[in-house]
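Researcher: Next entry: DUF6888 domain-containing protein (Hassallia byssoidea VB512170).
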Amino acid sequence: MEPTDKQAQGLYRLCYRLTNVIYPGWQYRSVEIVRTDERTGNLYVLAGDNLDFEIKPTGGYEA
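Model: Predicted structure:
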């Protein structure tokens, strides 16, 4: 299953925010894994030690 264009854009925005210090007090986080949930079509992102996100086909994401 391929991600939608909006999911790819959401993934880019999320990865940019995680790996760049753009907010005061925000710490750099590494992106460990990106996978597609075949059941829902959502992208699953594991970052740092304990952050996880799901990017919906609309491009929005939730922690």
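Model: Note for the record: The chain has one domain: 5-62.
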